[in-house]
Amino acid sequence: MSKWVRAHTNIALIKYWGKENEDLIIPKNNSLSLTLDAFYTDTSVTFDDALTEDELILDGDKQDARILNKVQRVLDEVRTLAGLESKARIESINHVPTAAGLASSASGLAALAGAASQAAGLDLSDQELSKLARIGSGSASRSIFGGFAEWLKGQDHDSSYAVPVDDAQWDIGMLFIIVNDAKKDVSSRDGMKRTVETSPFYDGWLKSLDADLSAIKQAVSDRDIEQVGQIAERNALKMHATTLGASPPFTYWTAESMKAMDAVRALRKLGYTAYFTMDAGPNVKIICRQSDLSALKQELSKTFEDKQLIAAKPGPGLHVLN
């Protein structure tokens, strides 16, 4: 009986943006994230000698070769580690809108790493699972862990993995403003590559990261949510600024994204601790006190529909469901 494994999404507060090694997905910088309870992926893997090719059933639909490519990188590594040759059937249920800047690949590939290694009879450590998830999707390396995690960039496959930083069992939460859950025009992978190769702003972004990372780790250790929010908001804006300098330029922001950012600034004027972050997509995430989530949702419902507002608390790491 195949085991179902669940991984939750993580949202980076210090962003991963740019690869040092495209093939191995080695990043140019360390990043730091918070795993959340509201969005997750459940995955089951079966290795079967009767299959002639790997197949992926996502939310009940068989996926094409392009989607399967990321998945096969993880499966091939598992087969190598376990000495298997069988093809695999993967069933996955995504409780995250796919490819809309809500970290669906993070939870998806982390869950796959867990489920495939279970199915192959491997007993991998969290560090090994993080490396395995990374070769499918970089941000997935961090979803192995609950709470705050840091992805250490490393230099090669063995040194690039995430580590836990803090369990986040304190008054911190996140409120999502979903302005668009459609698939984006420029994928994270393509946007990242274009920015690294062509944006004159990219070097400035890289040079500023070490200071941001050490400052936010101190703020997390101090449980200083004001500092965590300020550093994360500044870091996100710097990341998005690099895309405007790319050739050709692009942005993940929409008019609704700008409206959401303004709404967060308005919350601050009302006295709330509220700071935004955004990934490679139009949706806005508000870093806030967990104890303020209901009040913020109520305030924002004057501007946005209820279905656009999703409250999240810190979530757990990778775990088996059955």
TrEMBL record:
Enzyme kind, highest EC tier: lyase
Organism: Alkalibacterium thalassium
Domain spans labelled Mvd1 C-terminal: 175-308
Record-given protein name: diphosphomevalonate decarboxylase
GO CC aspect terms: cytosol
UniProt record similarity statement: Belongs to the diphosphomevalonate decarboxylase family.
Source organism, top-level taxon: Bacteria
The keyword NAD is annotated on this UniProt entry: no
One function term, GO molecular function aspect: diphosphomevalonate decarboxylase activity
Keywords: ATP-binding, Lipid biosynthesis, Lipid metabolism, Lyase, Nucleotide-binding
UniProt-listed GO biological process terms: isopentenyl diphosphate biosynthetic process, mevalonate pathway
InterPro entries: GHMP_kinase_C_sf (IPR036554), Mev_decarb (IPR005935), Mev_diP_decarb (IPR029765), MVD-like_N (IPR053859), Mvd1_C (IPR041431), Ribosomal_Su5_D2-typ_SF (IPR020568), Ribsml_uS5_D2-typ_fold_subgr (IPR014721)
UniProt domain Diphosphomevalonate decarboxylase-like N-terminal: residue ranges: 7-162
Record EC number: 4.1.1.33
